[in-house]
């Protein structure tokens, strides 16, 4: 597969067309940002650890009947994906209270959320990704009722699959963010599942194993991503 026109550069990934119609090439860059892009750095190897973990989970989800955009790896930091018409929402599944939900609502950090809580934000940096609800999603025409129900059901199934895999490795899946798009009439999981998009805690020590290490200067980010990636994929 050959890389063609540059399509889009986000905060952490760059998307290119390929010579195969309907297939895109996604390069996970070493750029890392936090707090709406206020904090940013370049961390060598970070892109490939995220790509590696994303590919691993996409494969695992496909084996479990979840449709994803993943087609295969081209390079350690680059994957081929099915082009989707992305739905501009961030679907966040929370198993444990942490981060923004604790700042905004009277939850105690670390409190289990059972059943898991799904929060959907509007993907719009200029508006600071405001939280949506079902009525807003329908009124804005972002998704149909059927699509929204499907997306939520997929998100919960994905949560169970990821959570079980991580728990076996002594890792608590605190929360994570998913993005979905429309494939050939079917809703597909897109984007990434990585240390940038999941909040992971060591089940024994409670230590952060994700982008919080970067956000809150908790240690060597790349060393942590490398360790976590090894724990996840082996
Ligand atoms: N299969 C796909 N087809 C089309 N676009 C996709 C696909 N998967 C992901 N994307 C889009 O590609 C972009 C990935 O870039 P990236 O994640 O770096 O940036 P961003 O989402 O704009 O910003 P950020 O996630 O940092 O807020 C996102 O806009 C995402 O919605
Ligand atoms: Mg993104």
TrEMBL record:
Family (UniProt): Belongs to the SAICAR synthetase family.
Gene: purC
Enzyme nomenclature, EC number: 6.3.2.6
InterPro entries: SAICAR_synt/ADE2_N, SAICAR_synt_PurC, SAICAR_synth, SAICAR_synthetase, SAICAR_synthetase_CS
Key words of the record: ATP-binding, Ligase, Nucleotide-binding, Purine biosynthesis
Cross-referenced NCBIfam families: purC
All residue ranges annotated as the SAICAR synthetase/ADE2 N-terminal domain in the record: 7-231
GO molecular function: phosphoribosylaminoimidazolesuccinocarboxamide synthase activity
Organism of provenance: Methanoculleus frigidifontis
Pathway where this protein functions: Purine metabolism; IMP biosynthesis via de novo pathway; 5-amino-1-(5-phospho-D-ribosyl)imidazole-4-carboxamide from 5-amino-1-(5-phospho-D-ribosyl)imidazole-4-carboxylate: step 1/2
Protein name in the entry: Phosphoribosylaminoimidazole-succinocarboxamide synthase
Domain of life: Archaea
Reaction(s) catalysed (UniProt annotation): 5-amino-1-(5-phospho-D-ribosyl)imidazole-4-carboxylate + L-aspartate + ATP = (2S)-2-[5-amino-1-(5-phospho-beta-D-ribosyl)imidazole-4-carboxamido]succinate + ADP + phosphate + 2 H(+)
